[in-house]
Design goal:
With about 150 residues, the chain is an all-alpha fold. It contains six helices and two strands; from the N terminus they run H-H-E-E-H-H-H-H. Strands 1-2 form a two-stranded antiparallel ribbon.
Length: about 150
Amino acid sequence: MNQKSENKEELLAHVDGIVRMVKIVFIAILMFPFVFYVASKINFDREEIAAVVEEPLIENGIDVESGLIVDEHYELVKGTCSACHSIALVTQNSATREGWKELIVWMQKTQKLWDLGDNEALILDYLEKNYAPKKQGRRAPLKNIEWYEL
């Protein structure tokens, strides 16, 4: 190829790039008013959206997201405990108030749990009430059984 045809091809490629860019800008200019029109027709009630987003789903007294029993201070427990580990570590265990306190002290000494301050008593109140040891054995005794003779 000679110099003239190379220059012509470069010029055509350059013009082609400019044409593509003009098309994109043109489409964007055409779409811009449409986007604003659609956005103006959507009624966003920020308070309603915030209420839906922030309100936990509760079924049968259990917070569906965490599995915690819904009771006073459960959100404090949820926020504090889930900062480091799964809430399942709470819900699958039970202990006396002293047992939960020992666990908190252990986490502070070995797992870098921060000082809970005044929240510690509230967390212990919740755990003592809702995740205390059960007074029954492994399972509830069978009731209303009709036995048959062998």
